Amino acid sequence: MDYKYIIYAKEKGIATITFHRPEAMNALNSQLLSELSAAVEEAAADGEVRVIIFTGEGKSFIAGADINEMEGKDTMGIIEYSRKGAALFRRIETLPKPTIAAVNGYAFGGGCEFMLCTDIRIAHEKASFAMPEVTLGIVPGFNGTQRLPKCIGMSRAKELLFTGRRIKANEALALGLVNKVVPAESFMAEVMAEAELIAKNSATAISLVKAALAAGEDVSVDVGKDIELGYMAASFGTPDQTEGFAAFKEKRPPKYI
Ligand code: CO8
Fold it and tell me: Cβ of 173: how many Cβ atoms within 10 Å?
């Protein structure tokens, strides 16, 4: 598919989806959401792709939902828009493949909500984050009120959601909003190194681990232990398990399918 607002690249089993809407700081409009959905499905369906990276071009990751497009929408119009984004974000969150947000710059509003749907978040030292919806007189619509407290705790989430203030990468790291902060000069190299580390491992096992984590997220440990048991049992007898064990015994790196 030809994309206008997305750059899709694939290298060494790693797909990189770059937001490219420079005239609007990569703000999410309907077309960008549709293209993002298509790009994600392209990566999901490609057997060679083991890890998906999301990043933005220029000084912005995603500067939120498109304010111009939202303006003038009535209640039903905004519900439709919100549901479209929320369904896509949930699809990304539950993809069987691991995802990394390489947050190169502004991650505001819908951009911060998008990032919360990825598995691992790596921030450029100049990245900044905010949930500024209340400064615009609105409520987050891509499930930030639901995911942010799960990520950083209720009180910290309330503070960011009530003030709308911008935070820098180091504060995001201290809050647990991102996994690490990387200097400008090595940013994409470190993101790729992390992706390659993941890509070397069993894609089957990672997809099962991801499914176990998702299925057990909101249940007691007693229920969760049986969820894990099912996924652990499923990993036995797979070609990757056979290869992983053989490689260990033969003292060589595994070659996973
Ligand atoms: N929507 C539309 N256009 C935008 C957006 C946006 N979110 N962000 C930036 N732009 C546009 C600007 O309007 C400007 O356009 P123009 O050149 O035509 O004036 C262009 O991008 C460049 O931006 P700036 O000139 O402002 O560049 P700066 O470097 O000075 O500032 C900022 C960059 C800091 C990113 C600044 O543009 C800004 O604060 N943007 C708005 C950020 C924001 O408030 N985001 C939250 C939006 S609300 C949201 O995301 C809710 C999500 C859920 C809703 C779901 C529906 C229910």
Answer: 16
